[in-house]
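If you are new to this repository, start here. Below is one unmodified record pulled from the training split, so you can see the exact layout before writing a loader.
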Amino acid sequence: DSFDILGDGVKELLVGRDDGVLEVYSFESADDPVLRYDHALSESIASIQGGCVGKDGYDEILASTYSGWLTGLTTEPVHREDGSGEELKLSQEMQSKISSLRNELEHLQMKVLQEREKYQQSSQSSTAVSSVPAFSVNDKFTLNKDDASYSLILEVQTAIDNVLVQVRVVLFLL
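And here is the target side for that same chain:
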């Protein structure tokens, strides 16, 4: 995407990469872009967009990852008081937001526990039907011309113990 995230009147280039790196390039000179910021995420970035989302007057970058997570980076400054052991002072609005989020988190945790119990009960009944879950796989198989090797990149929402690679030729994994 291109968006004026720096607020200087010139749009910056927002780049989300397969390896999970988010980059912001500016065009200070007409020739080459300059890397202004980068941030590494734990999985590949599927989509990236700049705009004003959370709070008026503060621009943000939103990135969607392969598994559907949204990550937001904002230009809103974070004010913290640094003193001799003093606690961080939060506004009343921020305290109410934190309290609301904690309540929502507790509610969701209770709901997850209830659903797990319901699943356990249904899976142990005599009429239960078991099925193998379907996983979406993001894969890339590319040739590295410099050393005549191939890179296989698999991204799947399961533990590595559950991944099976089956080939018809001799394969050396590094």
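Two things worth knowing about this chain: The helical segments are 92-123. The chain has a mean pLDDT of 83.
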